[in-house]
Amino acid sequence: MELIEQIKTRAKAYSEEFVAVRRHLHAHPELSYQEYETSRFVQQKLREFGIGFEVIATTGIVGIIQGKNPESRVIALRADMDALQIKEENQVSYCSVNDGVMHACGHDVHTTILLGAAKILNELKGEWEGTIKLLFQPGEEKNPGGASYMIRDGALENPKPVGIIGLHVHPGLNFGKLSFRKGRVMASADEIYITIKSKGGHAAAPHLTADTILIASHLIVGLQQIISRNNNPVSPSVLSICSIQGGHTTNVIPSEVKLKGTFRAMDEAWRFKAHELIRKLAFGIVESMGAELDLLIDVGYPTVDNDPAFTSSNWLLANEYMGEDNVEETELRMGAEDFGYYTQVIPGCFYRLGVRNEEKGIVHNVHTPLFNIDERAIETGMGMMAWLGIKSGL
Questions:
Q1: CATH for the 188-301 domain, from 3.40.50.1220, 3.90.1150.10, 3.40.50.300, 3.30.70.360
Q2: Where in the chain is the domain with CATH 3.30.70.360?
Q3: Angle, to 10 degrees, between the axis of helix 15-27 and the axis of helix 377-391?
Q4: Treating both helix axes as pointing N-terminal to C-terminal, what angle do 377-391 and 107-123 enclose, rounded to 10 degrees?
Q5: CATH topology assigned to domain 3-186+303-391
Q6: Among all residues, which ones are annotated catalytic?
Q7: CA distances from 83 to 33, 104, 108 (A)
């Protein structure tokens, strides 16, 4: 039997086993950097499969599977493990038992798929060349991103992979389909924290203080020109102020107003130029209107930049496994992913797995209380990941 058929046969045979794995993980979500039970569960599964591993970045895991001629090629496969602070509203038997915490971004699916792929890869290790590193990563949902800690602790060294592959569930893409994109595919994401301060005062005497509410209004509007008049319009970028906190009644000018927002870009050079423009404009407006300013730009995840050649080769492999009609080009997304850290170090390919099924009502987006998947995508995902692990980089 050809190797591709062996993978498909095993993925189908193990599908029920790994649906159960996914349901266990879904029912027991843990927040970023708190994935202790999840990590222990993954470690136990790797032991059952006979796969060696080490624990890094507190809850992160790096597994190693060696095929024939293990030094000939090294490929890394990555999954994230953390959940979100969301109260689940799905009425399913495997609903979260941790109140207010939910796998609303599909990381339970990603972890399950990598475990399933690992079992297949290990059973077939006499059939393929090279070494495969399995990266189970904490903290994708929270700055500074667990990927940065995995890299810090040596996940991409000894041996160093020639490339890294990751996937993400896509609730806008039907079950049975994948999508790829070469080059930039997801934006950088930085958090903006602003505090405007004055002595405050009576609303009937605004001339005796700096009006922090008015200043905040000017600043929110002014910040938009950072994008509209400084960024190249063909390069996507977003600056959104999403929180305003200040004041408590009708006749008091507050001494303090706090703003929170996000800045996103597809171009790393523009990203850091924009930081300077934000600082210059914010201090200019606030100080010219008589108030003081505290400003923090918390630098977050970089752009996810899929290596064109590496992604093209994986795209062709996906066509071979899935059929060309089931592999699409994914859209640019201004969402962020700390997979971008990996793509700054080695060639990366981050692709999408369709999980949508309108007939079953599985249509809700990630980061919502009703997010769910067509669980048949697990068979597709683990078979596809195993196939890419075996064939990628050759």
A1: 3.30.70.360
A2: 188-301
A3: 110
A4: 50
A5: Aminopeptidase (3.40.630)
A6: 301, 375
A7: 10, 7, 8
From residue 322, how far is each of 5, 136, 327 by CA, in Å? 12, 25, 7
| 29: Cα within 13 Å, side-chain hemisphere | 29
Output b/e per residue, 22-53; b: 16+ Cβ within 10 A.
bbebbbbbbbbbbbeebbebbbebbeebebeb
CATH 3.40.630.10 boundaries in the chain:
3-186+303-391
- Contacting residues for 141 by C-beta, under 8 A, at least 6 apart: 31, 32, 82, 83, 84, 105
pTM: 0.94
Tokens of 153: 């602790």
Give the pLDDT of the chain (394 residues) as one tens digit per residue.
799 999 999 999 999 999 999 999 999 999 999 999 999 999 999 999 999 999 999 999 999 999 999 999 999 999 999 999 999 999 999 999 999 999 999 999 999 999 999 999 999 999 999 999 999 999 999 999 999 999 999 999 999 999 999 999 999 999 999 999 999 999 999 999 999 999 999 999 999 999 999 999 999 999 999 999 999 999 999 999 999 999 999 999 999 999 999 999 999 999 999 999 999 999 999 999 999 999 999 999 999 999 999 999 999 999 999 999 999 999 999 999 999 999 999 999 999 999 999 999 999 999 999 999 999 999 999 999 999 999 998 6
